[in-house]
């Protein structure tokens, strides 16, 4: 499954958010307060000195309480933010499963949105042209593909979003708590596809609150708490530890 | 596709020159920029009755109103409709492109929280949409010239040159605005007021000769849009080649604005993921 070649490396990675004590929303207020020397910020370290090597082909679970820093770590890996200190490097293209359909525009048709979303994921015109057929097929939305997406139900949005994001086998796939969207047959289809990618060598990062899901799908699990990696290891052991600490 | 010597695609420590990385990434994501422009154009017209014709009707309507209102006042200007329309085309491009760059980036904020796309994509796609609208507006310009029997000369065909300058200038301003708008939503509203005042300080509806002395000096020396507008009017309205004294200020201000806007935006854009 994994040949232990590192594809993602976090080296002393820290992320510090500067939060204003009082939320100032307008330029006017900010300028006035700044001149009066009244801008006060508080440092919040979302991640602190995280060292983690993620290997090619492994399925890594990430668990932790809300606000622990899981999403922040994923943002570092998918290049949404840069670490405040430390370093992150990634070998391979990262496909995030966005809140499915985040990039879709309601006025455009499903077909047009497929092209737009594909472009956001980094594909070019001819690649999208080739993928269109299989995306429509997987989503099961052929009859609706040319209708504007504002006429779609939320389940249909999710289906199309998932189809676009997972049509090509990605090097690295990030699954951030979206598997709870859609009806059961669709969820099954999603899980199957993700497992198939895993078997074919994709490195998968899964964030979930469901320890059962994590245990069933992952090779390793990392537990994040207050911005630190509290434990990395075997899924059932780490999950048991985590469950124990939650109920204490 | 599996090889142990896979190159590092992304290394966060390599960020000494974000303004150049941005150019490289923008090129890699060029299909996205085209798609964003396409999205803007399609959604603008999908639900409207007149469709694409609306691009032409808007400035036309404005020109008609202004002509009816002011042509008596400015009867000294020959071919007043063409005079106004040539000014309106340039101004619409500037105001719409800069506003769109700002609005798109703020809209795209939620997207930027989840996936990496080059931050300048939004401003660039706004410029592309603007250019397409501008070129379409040249059609009614020619029609008006024909109807009012105003002679256009071959220098008209030089229009790509001032268009390139207004593109650079608008991109620079758009990037600067969007940087501020990400942090402060009221920038968008303040800008609407500024742009209106700016429009009146630019000789679109009136000849600059009517301005009183101090204002005249301010407008003709300190208003960057004045220089660009002058170039555009020289080749379209006056039907002559522009003088060097008209070319260099427009070129200088456009390029400098673009560079400043690009550099500031690229450096600040790393923070966007933190702020939104």
Topology:
The complex is a heterodimer of chains A (248) and B (276).
Chain A: E1 6-20, H1 27-35, E2 41-55, E3 59-63, H2 70-77, E4 85-90, E5 94-97, H3 110-120, H4 125-139, H5 154-166, E6 172-176, H6 184-199, E7 203-207, H7 211-217, E8 220-225, E9 228-233, H8 235-247
Parallel strand pairs in A: 3-7, 3-8, 5-6, 6-7
Antiparallel strand pairs in A: 1-2, 1-4, 8-9
Helix pairs in contact in A: 3-4, 3-5, 4-5, 7-8
Chain B: E1 10-11, H1 18-28, H2 30-46, H3 53-70, H4 80-112, H5 121-147, H6 160-183, H7 186-200, H8 213-222, H9 224-236, H10 244-268, H11 272-275
Task: Classify the secondary structure makeup of chain A into a structural class.
Answer: alpha/beta
- Main pleated-sheet profile of chain B: none
Write down how many β-strands of chain A occur, each being a DSSP E stretch of 2 or more residues: 9
Task: Tell me the number of structural domains of chain B.
Answer: 1
> Order of helices and strands of chain B, N to C?
EHHHHHHHHHHH
Unreliably modeled segments of chain A: none
The tally of domains of chain A stands at: 1
Indicate the proportion of strand residues of chain A. Answer: 25-35%
The radius of gyration over CA of chain B amounts to 21 Å
Tally of separate helices of chain A: 8
- How many strand segments of chain B? 1
* Helix-and-strand structural type of chain B: mainly alpha
Shape of chain A: globular
Poorly predicted segments of chain B: none
Radius of gyration of chain A: 20 Å
Question: Mind telling me the CATH superfamily name of chain A?
Answer: P-loop containing nucleotide triphosphate hydrolases
Largest interface: A-B, 48 and 43 residues
Percentage of residues in helical conformation of chain B: over 70%
CATH topology of chain A: Rossmann fold
């Amino acid at each position: 499954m994994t040949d232990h070649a590192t594809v993602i490396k976090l080296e002393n990675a820290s992320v510090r958010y500067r939060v204003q004590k009082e939320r100032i929303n307008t330029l006017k207020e900010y300028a006035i307060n700044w001149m009066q020397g009244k801008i006060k910020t508080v440092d919040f370290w979302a991640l602190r000195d995280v060292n983690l090597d993620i290997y090619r082909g492994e399925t890594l679970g990430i668990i932790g309480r809300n606000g622990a820093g899981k999403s922040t770590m994923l943002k570092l890996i998918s290049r949404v933010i840069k670490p405040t200190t430390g370093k992150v490097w990634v070998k391979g293209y990262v496909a995030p499963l966005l809140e499915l359909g985040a990039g879709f525009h309601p006025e455009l048709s499903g077909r047009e949105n497929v092209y737009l979303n594909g472009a956001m994921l980094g594909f070019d015109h001819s690649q999208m042209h080739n993928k269109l057929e299989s995306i429509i097929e997987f989503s099961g939305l052929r009859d609706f593909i040319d209708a504007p997406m504002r006429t779609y139900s939320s389940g249909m949005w999710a289906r199309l979003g998932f189809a676009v994001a997972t049509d090509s086998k990605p090097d690295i796939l990030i699954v951030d708590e979206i598997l709870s969207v859609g009806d059961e047959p669709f969820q099954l289809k999603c899980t199957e596809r993700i497992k198939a990618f895993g078997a074919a060598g994709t490195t998968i990062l899964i964030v979930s609150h469901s320890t059962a899901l994590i245990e069933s799908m992952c090779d390793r699990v990392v537990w994040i708490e207050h911005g630190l990696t509290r434990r990395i290891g075997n899924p059932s052991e780490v999950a048991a530890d985590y469950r124990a600490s939650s109920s204490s | 596709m599996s090889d142990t010597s896979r190159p590092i695609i992304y290394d966060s420590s390599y960020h000494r020159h974000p303004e150049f990385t941005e150019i490289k990434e923008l090129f890699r994501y060029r299909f996205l920029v085209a798609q964003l422009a396409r999205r803007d154009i399609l959604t603008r017209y999908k639900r409207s009755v007149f469709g694409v014709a609306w691009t032409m009707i808007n400035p036309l309507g404005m020109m008609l109103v202004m002509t009816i209102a002011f042509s008596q006042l400015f009867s000294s200007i020959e071919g007043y409709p063409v005079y106004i329309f040539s000014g309106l085309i340039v101004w619409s491009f500037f105001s719409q492109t800069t506003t769109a760059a700002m609005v798109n980036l703020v809209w795209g904020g939620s997207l930027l929280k989840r996936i990496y796309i080059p931050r300048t994509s939004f401003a660039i796609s706004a410029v592309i949409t603007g250019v397409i609208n501008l070129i379409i507006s040249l059609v009614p310009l020619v029609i008006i010239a024909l109807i009012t029997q105003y002679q256009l000369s071959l220098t008209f065909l030089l229009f790509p040159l001032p268009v390139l300058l207004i593109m650079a200038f608008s991109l620079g301003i758009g990037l600067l605005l969007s940087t501020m708008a990400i942090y402060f939503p009221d920038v968008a509203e303040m800008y609407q007021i500024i742009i209106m005042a700016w429009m009146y300080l630019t000789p679109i509806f009136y000849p600059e000769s009517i301005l009183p002395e101090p204002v005249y000096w301010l407008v003709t020396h300190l208003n960057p849009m004045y220089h660009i507008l002058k170039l555009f009017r020289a080749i379209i309205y006056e039907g002559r080649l522009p003088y060097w004294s008209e070319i260099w200020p427009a070129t200088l201000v456009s390029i400098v604005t673009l560079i400043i806007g690009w550099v500031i935006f690229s450096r600040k854009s790393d923070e966007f993921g933190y702020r939104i």
